[in-house]
């Protein structure tokens, strides 16, 4: 193929629109195809974007917008199940703090940036097959439609169809025997607002912190029969 000018990006989560924005900077026009019919606004839990992630977002001009929706976390405090502090891990010297945010806020920032640059995001397009030809690649969607471009990029998450199409023998993700749950609380917690706390038990751990609105948030990874692995 002489020169790549067009791309199909499969998956309209975080990585898909971010990839399309990066491709735009390289002069490649990408269309993003997402399986779900509706956007994922308001869905998902919390995640932390580390300094290297913010750096990567800086390449597409989104580091400041993403940092703005995140709570700076400068240290992590580890304790045992009785509350005895085991260690405190500060951030890395010379680097900005990690930012803790709702996945939905990160999703919104990246998606809105892509839409603002007129990148096409098509919903209800679940990739089921791809046909490689000498002059490009054609994606086949569950609704019977197709799209053709110079290249196809998989940004379709942990159960990636693209990965299976490229390598049907690729290892599948495996359950690790833990079930993650998370929530918010109305408790008053006398802890620092720039730290994330962990309490480790024998078979599970709890993570918690106080959000800028004063409400504690938490998550726990619990052993689960439903996800038991021998
Ligand atoms: C509980 C939890 C905590 C986490 N904490 C952190 C953290 O602190 N820091 C961190 O960096 N990461 C964290 N992660 C991981 C992070 O959330 C993921 O790495 C990130 O969301 C992956 O983004 P993505 O765009 O690659 O995939 P996704 O967000 O999964 O998006 C993939 C998209 O592709 C679509 N899709 C799938 N199949 C097809 C198909 N066949 N055709 C078309 N579209 C398709 C899906 O509908 C989806 O919209 C956490 C994850 C979990 C579950």
What would you say about this model in short?
The protein is α/β, with parallel strands linked by helices. Helix content is 20%, strand content 37%.
Commentary on this structure:
20% of the residues lie in helices and 37% in strands. With 230 residues, it is an alpha/beta fold. The longest helix is centred in the middle third of the chain and has 14 residues, at 103-116. The mean pLDDT is 94. The structure holds flavin-adenine dinucleotide. Flavin-adenine dinucleotide (FAD) binds next to helix 1 and strand 3.
Defining traits:
4-stranded parallel β-sheet; FAD/NAD(P)-binding domain; 6-stranded mixed β-sheet; alpha/beta; 16 strands; binds flavin-adenine dinucleotide; 230 residues; 2 domains
List strands and helices in order, with pairings.
Elements: E1 6-10, H1 15-25, E2 29-33, E3 46-49, H2 51-59, H3 63-68, E4 71-73, E5 75-80, E6 85-90, E7 98-102, H4 103-116, E8 120-122, E9 127-133, E10 136-141, E11 146-149, E12 151-154, H5 161-166, E13 178-184, E14 195-200, E15 205-210, E16 216-223
Parallel strand pairs: 1-2, 1-12, 2-8, 5-14
Antiparallel strand pairs: 3-7, 4-7, 5-6, 9-10, 10-11, 13-16, 14-15, 15-16
The structure holds flavin-adenine dinucleotide (FAD).
> How many β-strand stretches?
16
Q: Low-confidence spans: pLDDT under 50, at least 5 residues?
A: none
Beta-strand portion reads 35-45%
What is the averaged pLDDT score?
Answer: 94
Q: Helical element count?
A: 5
The appropriate CATH architecture of the largest domain is: 3-Layer(bba) Sandwich
Instruction: List all distinct small molecules, including ions and cofactors, that are bound in this structure.
Output: flavin-adenine dinucleotide
CA(first)-CA(last) distance? 47 Å
Q: What characterizes the major β-sheet?
A: 6 strands, mixed
Strand order, largest beta sheet: 6-5-14-15-16-13
Shape: globular
CATH H-level superfamily of the largest domain: FAD/NAD(P)-binding domain
What name is given to the CATH topology of the largest domain?
A: FAD/NAD(P)-binding domain
Spatial extent as radius of gyration: 21 Å
Q: What is the C-level CATH assignment of the largest domain?
A: Alpha Beta
Helicity range: 10-25%
Total domains = 2
Order of helices and strands: EHEEHHEEEEHEEEEEHEEEE
Tell me the structural class. alpha/beta
């Amino acid at each position: 193929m002489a020169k790549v000018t067009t791309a199909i990006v499969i998956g309209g989560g975080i990585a898909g629109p971010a990839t399309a924005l990066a491709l735009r900077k390289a002069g490649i026009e990408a269309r993003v195809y997402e399986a779900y019919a509706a956007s994922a606004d308001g869905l998902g839990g919390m995640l932390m974007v580390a300094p290297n992630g913010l750096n990567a977002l800086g390449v597409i001009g989104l580091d400041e917008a993403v940092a703005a929706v995140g709570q700076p976390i400068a240290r992590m405090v580890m304790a045992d199940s009785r509350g005895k502090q085991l260690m405190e891990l500060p951030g890395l010297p010379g680097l900005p703090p990690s930012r803790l945010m709702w996945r939905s806020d990160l999703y919104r920032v990246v998606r809105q940036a892509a839409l603002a640059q007129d990148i096409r995001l098509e919903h209800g397009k679940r990739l089921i097959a791809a046909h490689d030809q000498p002059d490009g690649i054609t994606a086949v969607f569950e609704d019977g439609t197709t799209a053709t471009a110079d290249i196809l990029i998989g940004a379709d998450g942990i159960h990636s169809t693209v990965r299976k199409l490229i390598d049907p023998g690729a290892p599948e993700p495996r359950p690790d025997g833990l079930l993650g749950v998370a929530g918010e609380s109305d408790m008053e917690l006398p802890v620092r607002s720039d730290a994330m706390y962990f309490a480790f038990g024998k078979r599970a751990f709890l993570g918690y912190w106080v959000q800028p609105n004063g409400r504690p948030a938490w998550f726990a990874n619990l052993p689960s029969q439903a996800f038991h692995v021998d």
